Each structure stands twice: as C-alpha cells, then as structure tokens.
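Researcher: Can you fold this with iron/sulfur cluster in place?
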Amino acid sequence: MNSTKTLIYDGSFNGFLTAIFVAFEEKAVVSDIQKHSVCQNGLFSETETIFTQMDKAKRVWNGIHKKSHSAIKDIYFAFLSEHKGIEILLYRFIRKMFASDTSIASDYSDGLVLKISQLARSVGREKHRMEAFVRFQLTKDEIYFANIEPDFNVLPLISKHFRSRYADQQWLIYDIKRKYGIFYDLNRVEIVSLDLDDIHTNSINKSAHFTDEEYNYQDLWNNYFKSTNIKSRINLKLHKQHVPKRYWKYLSEKKAV
Amino acid sequence: MSLSFDRIKEKLNILADAAKYDVSCSSSGSVRKNNTNGLGDSSGMGICHSYTEDGRCVSLLKILLTNHCIFDCAYCVTRKSNDVQRAAFKIQEVVDLTINFYRRNYIEGLFLSSGIFKSPDYTMERLVAVAKKLRLEENFNGYIHLKSIPGASDELMREAGLYADRLSVNIEVPTISELKLLAPDKKHEDFTKPMLKVKNEIIQYKSEKKIIKSTPKYAPAGQSTQMIVGATGESDKDIMYSATYYYKTYHMKRVYYSGYVPVADDSRLPAIGTQVPMLRENRLYQTDWLLRFYGFGVQELLNNDHPNLDMDVDPKLGWALRNMQYFPIDINKADKSVLARIPGLGMKSVHKIISARRFRKLNWEHLKKIGVALNRAKYFIVCDSSKWEHRDMEGAKIKGLILQNSTGKFRKEYSNQLQLF
Ligand code: SF4
C-alpha cells in the first residue's frame, strides 16, 4: 500500500540526493521533502527522517549523470537557489527524467523543465556576479579577505574559480547571510565559520585589521574607476542594470567619499 | 610611502583618463591556465568586474604608459599640440599596480597603450618590457592586451606576442584619404605592417604547435582594432566594408566602433559639445554581430542603394522589411541559418527552438515561454497556430506597428555592450 510521506533531510545536497534515493526505493508517494531546520509537518502525512548516506547519494548522482550531463548541473544549481519548495520540484523533475526515454532537459516548452532551468540560470548569474564583485582586502596577517551576501548559496560554486586564480595568496570569502566561509591556506580550500566583530564591506571607516597599504590601493582603484568615465556618454540607467544597487556595498569604487 | 602613493595617484588619473577613449574592454578568448601555482588564470571567459557610469565593462586596468607624444593626430587627446598635463609611468609602477589590483579581484588584467615618445620602437620596447616582467618575474597568468605602436619593428612585434594575450593597432579613421588629412604624421602602412606581422606569427606559431607541443603561445586572444565613428563624415557602408576587410585580411578577432567624443577645436572635426553618436555606434555593433554570427553578408545590409543603417530599427529588422519576399518563415521547419534571419530572434532563441521542436510543434505560447521577442517576430513567422499576423502587410506598415509598440524601450537604451535584437 502506498502512503503519502514527508521526507526530512539535513539540508545538504547529499542529504537531498539520499532522500531522492529513499523516495524511489520505497515507492512512497512523497508529498514533500523538507530541510530539518524549516520542517513543518503536514497534518495528514507521515514523516520520515533521512540520514545522509554518501553511497546512496552517489548512486542517484551517477544515475542522473548517465541520463543527462546538463541536467545534473541544472539540478545542483537549482538546489542551491534555496527557493521555497525547490526539493519537491526537483523530485518531480527527476522522476520525469527517469520516466522519459529521451532527454527532457532541453524541452523548454515544458513548464517544470523551464522553471528548473530558470532557477539554475539565476544561480549561475549570481555565481558570475560574485566572481566579479568580490573585493579582497588585505589583512595584517596577509589574508585577502572578502565579505559577501549573495542571494543564493553560491560559495560551493565559486570556490574552484578563486582557487585556480589566486593559487599563491591566502584568501577567505565569507557569506554573512549564511554564516560560513571558504578559506584557502595555499594548500586547500576549507569551510570555516567566524566570529566577525564587524562586517567589512565597502566601509568608509578604516578597520585595524587591514594594512595601510590596503587603503591606499582602495583609494587608487576608486580614483581609477572615476577616471574611466566619459561624461558625454553617461547612462546611469544602463549602469544600474549592470551593477544592481544591492551589490554596491561590496564595491570599493562605489564607496561614498 | 604615502608620498609616492600620491604621486602614483596623480599619474594614474592622467594616464587612465587619456586611455579611456579606447573602447575595447574584452578580456576573453585567451587560455592561460595557472599550472604553476602562480597568480592568475585566464580560462576563456572574461569577467566584467565593474561598469563605468556610461555602462561600459571594466575588466582591465586600462592606462597609457605615457601621454607624451611626438605626433599630432587631430582626433586624439594626447596629440602634441594639445594643452594637457603630461605624465609617464615607470615600468615597475605599472607592474605593481597591475599585480595589486589583480590580487584584490578588481581586474582581469592589463591593457597598456602609449603615446609615442622618441620613436615607435623606443615606445614599443617599453610596453613589451612591462608584459615580460609580469610574465617572467611575477608569474602572472592574467590577461595582457598591448597596443602595437604604428611603425614598430617586426622584431618587437614578435616579442610582444610572446607575452601578450592580445595585440591591437587602432586604425581609427576608416578611409585612407581622411587618415592623410587627420593624422599627417602617419602612413597607412604604419598601421597595417604590425597587423600583418602579428597575423603571420599567429599562423606560424599555431602550425608549429601542432608539431612541437612545447611551442609557446603567441597572442592567443588574437588581434583587434578600433574605428572612430562620426569624426569624418564617413558612411556606415565605409565603416563596415573597412571592418570586413580587416576581419578578412588580418584575421581580426574584433573590430570596435567608438563614437567620436570631440576633444579638439579643429575645423576638420565636429566641434566640442557635439553629441556622441551612440545610437549609430550601437547599430554598427549590431551589424558587426550579424556579419560574424548570423550569416549575413555585408552587401546585404549595406550597399550603394542603402549606404547607411536605419536609426529607428535594428539592422536585422531593417533588412527583413526590405526583403519581405523571404517571409513568413515556418518556425517548425526552417533551418538554423534561416531562423537566424528572423527579427526578434537571437541565436539563443534559435537554439532553444531547435531543441524544443523535437518534442512537439511549437505555437505562440511556446515561443513566448522560450523568450522570443514576439512583438517583432510575429510579423515574419508562422507556427503551429492558425493565427498569423502577416495578412499581406507591406514592410512600411509593419515597421509602423512595431515602432508604435516599442517606443521608449527601443530608442533610449543604447550601449555598445550589445543589447542585441
Ligand atoms: S600617435 Fe597615438 S597617441 Fe600620439 S597623437 Fe596620434 S593617436 Fe594620439
């Protein structure tokens, strides 16, 4: 007999994949998949707590990968959107994938496929923005430090980019919203959490953590930015389209002086 | 310490200001992997780290090494006769600025140009020295774009390509007769000689690399050039035919079009305060795009009957309206190259249509979801629906309807950052 169930997982991507595995295995009618931290029991459905198991997660990952290369990326990116109800959307998407003989990932006239691909694209866009807008500040103990506050959970996605670009300097990028960061110590990238006494984005006040030289370079960059303007071409509307106002706080060139 | 920072700041202001009229901002198209655990990695796609207030991408530290110049090109702020403050960076100063900006994730790399001091070779030698230092001493794998100084020797151009990702010479003036008038110190050959050298070196290095794996890269992001638009009364046809020639003859990766910003009171040129022809510049970029990616031939878009682009509609729409005999096109059947010619359809939409129509015949709803700009496209296509907007309308009528429904949006926002179709 099939019962309806809500699966509760730990919030990690592997936890989510484990939940998918369980859902397929038990052939249960899954009414929802929820993060442990936001769990709300449906009145009439049973709940089951999922314990993350790497081997099960891996099997689901490989299964999807075999079906479609592009789908696996879309699924991971869409998951990181933290969109409300994303888990159940992805569950339906994955079921649909396995039920179909052809690859559905490019069927943009299907509403669900389109939704997933749109979410994945927004996350991709945020990833690119963070790769562009991170501004490192050099601390006195020689770590290039940056705060970010992205709309989506993109730290796992940007790590590789910064690792290969800044291989010969220590750096730390900290997500203030999600309260964790990634730290590169010249060997590898680790996940860290910090007790921040202050948020160090684009502040006019100098902090004792950073070198004097740091503020000199910020000043130079600021100046450089101003002199790139061609007054007779000014187009602030376009400017704001490219750099939405909510990102200005990161950018030292946008510092009000 | 802070004293020298003040001095650097002053130089930076002068030498960035003088460099900003070069609109090329691309930092893409190069592959320079960080295999040595050094600094930087250019793996294909360039990043815009910021945007100027006129909406242009900021991805490179774009400066002149010096704005001292022995020449007097009328259209240039740096010209000898212009009364401006002059400055010159030391080689090490440029290296330090680049590295420190790069480490803070401000930039993708360096774009270094220069006024010509003493002689073309003397200048080129110094540009090459900066790039060499960055690569060999700083282990820097970020992007480097060097300006080829008109008249520089082949030997220096060969060396430049070993350290730079991209090389460019700006021809600036699209016709030879105008060049004589505006840049009397320069000969046309001064521009084309370094271009030819770079093109040949690229071909040679590429073929050697096929045989000997360890052959170094030579200017992996190719070469580009720039033309000023609206300084000399040239037609759009003059500009785009010239551009086509440079693409073909010298294998240019990009030709840039820069609306002339008046910088001189000179009877040969538009007066100071004349508006920058930004819409025209945008139309030229759209045309360039159609030539490179949409399969159009330049004669189709510009010819003796039609020497200038329409300002009120984009060049693809303009072409379609003059060639209604090719329409309507069946979205569910037409080839990629035919779909690409439909107004309102970008290449992304073309690919999506080709993917999606494998699953079902597409109707208006599907096309809307895919993101096709139906307000333009609907007059030129049929799909899986009996509703068809054409009703044997004349081009002029269609144009009227399209313009009616797209006022404002269409005309106010123009940029060279390719807001296309
Ligand atoms: S040679 Fe170059 S820098 Fe000198 S005036 Fe002519 S265009 Fe300007």
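Model: Folded with iron/sulfur cluster in place. The first strand of chain A starts at residue 4 and ends at 9.
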